[in-house]
Amino acid sequence: MADSSEKQRQSGESPRSAEPATLPSVNAVEKPEPAQSSLHPAFYVVAWIGFSGGVILFNKYLLDTMGFRFPIVLTTWHMVFATFMTQVLSRTTTLIDGRKTVKMTGKVYLRAILPIGFFFSLSLICGNKAYLYLSVAFIQMLKATMPVAVLITSWILAVAPINLKQLGNVSFIVIGVVIASVGEIKFDLTGFLWQAGGISFEATRLVMVQRLLSSAEYKMDPLTSLYYFAPVCALMNGVVALFTEVPTMTMQNIYNVGYVVLIANALVAFMLNVSVVFLIGKTSSLVLTLCGVLKDILLVAASMMIWGTPVSGTQFFGYSIALGGLMYYKLGADQLKQHVAQAGRSWQEFGQNKPATRKALIFGLVLFVMFILLGGLAPTYAPEQTGKLRDYMGFNTGGVVNAHP
Asked: Considering its fold, how many domains does the chain have in total?
């Protein structure tokens, strides 16, 4: 009887001893697959272009067209709103969970976050001040020099070794922007200096961020960076605004713009950072570079059509050189050749498979280019007719466009 019971006990243990061997296969089957995004990458690209260009046009509209001539107060409001939203998102979503991997200490905050926030604040102030004096079109042309400023700043701060070959690669950007500046019809030295300062401070900030992020323990996505930098910028900009713009500002200035418009403006600025987070990893460096160039071109065209900004042929020529130099610097000659050849083959295959669709795309592109050229060149070569058309369509700004304080 004892032998029988012993056999039963041993036979009962047999399945248990074999059970662990079956666990990996069972877990592999039952483990749920991660949810895949149902949105096409083009959605994120369009969203980024829309918010990025929307912030610039919205700021210009507020500061110039609507007469809210308090750029430092506006940047302070943006940073206060961003501080509030990042705090809300950090407590209600996983979008800013990246902060949990950042080893943030008081020493790091004082030695890294505060200095970077300081230059971020200066770049925002100078960049928004420029909208009071310069057109959106000319500002975008000047911003093409950002890679040059970052390269030189990285040499000054000893973050990267001096490379004369890289300097030669960016020389076309400088030449193009110089030509575009010479051709600027409404050149304003004050606005030019404000924008140059904004580019210099932004380049310094980017190089300092690059040095900070060189350590794996401080890797941050744009939204996590905003979580740390927004409070610093809000405080610094607020102090500057308190002594420069607030004394001359009244509540009537805010009432003239409206609370809804100010909230919408801050929301668009914040959504730009959110769209960048979703865009990262969805597209290649080529797509990002081309989208940046497309965004700049669309902003120049929008400035010409909305505000009637006159742009000379010399500026078109110079800006084309600058954009070409920008793409060459970011992608390199070999990579550009490969992408161009691949694009040519893809276009040829597309034409063979869908000839009617390709013809429709070509026709639409021709119409779009003609619309951009005619709409953009009209303010330069037919100012009176353009003014009448803009008044008829309701774009009359009451004579405050390009007015100086």
From this structure: 1
Q: Which two tokens stand for residue 257?
A: 């713009």
> How far apart, in whole angstroms, are the C-alpha atoms of residue 77 and residue 188?
27
Domain membership of residue 6 (yes or no) is: no
Q: What is the mean pLDDT of each run of 10 residues along the chain (405 residues)?
A: 50 47 44 52 84 92 91 95 94 85 81 88 93 91 90 89 84 88 86 95 89 70 86 94 94 93 94 80 67 84 82 86 82 66 73 77 73 57 57 46 36
**Cβ contact 218:360 at 8 Å:** no
HSE-CB at 359 with a 13 A cutoff on CA atoms is 5
The rounded Cα 305 to chain-centroid distance in angstroms is 22
Could you tell me the pTM of the whole model? 0.72
User: How would DSSP label each residue in 270-297?
Assistant: HHHHHHHHHHTTTS-HHHHHHHHHHHHH
pLDDT attached to residue 354: 77
Give the domain range for residue 47.
39-392
Residue 33 lies in a domain: no
Q: What's the confidence (pLDDT) of residue 378? A: 55
Which amino acid appears at position 339 of this protein? H
Domain assignment present for residue 18? The answer is no
Q: Smallest Cα–Cα separation from 291: which of 327, 340, 335?
A: 327
Count of positions (residues) in the chain: 405
Structural domain includes residue 27: no
Listed in sequence order, the residues at least 6 apart from 235 whose beta carbon sits closer than 8 Å to its beta carbon are: none
Q: How big is the chain by its Cα radius of gyration, in Å? A: 27
Helical packing angle, 222-244 and 71-92, nearest 10°: 150
